[in-house]
Amino acid sequence: MAAAWLLPDEASAAAERLLVGIEAIHVPSLFWFEIRNVLAMAERRGRIKVGDALPYLLRLRELPFQDDGSGSDVASFALMQRHGLTAYDAAYLALAKAEAMPLATLDGKLALGARTEDVALLGPLAGSAA
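Given the sequence above, the corresponding structure tokens read:
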């Protein structure tokens, strides 16, 4: 979802609407590593201009993110196995489930796992089957 907030070729009105009035965006610690990688790859592949990655990252840092740590190994492994998720995606789902918060994702497989776990979804996939 954060890529849709930053990258012009992934821009989404639905993603932008999620930011209106939001007080906190809960993320596992790995979020910052993932977003750095997304932006570096976007530069390398010519999706954004060379030199734009860091300013995009700094703009993202202005949003009200709350780093909730690395999460539960037990919960993450259970979700990885149950839904065939990567460790990364399972961390987001485990956090949303543990904190009883909705999950913002544009990933169909993660959205399906969230639905199965009775985790509410935010964004374009909220009302559709993944």
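The radius of gyration is 15 Å. Try to locate this feature in the token string yourself.
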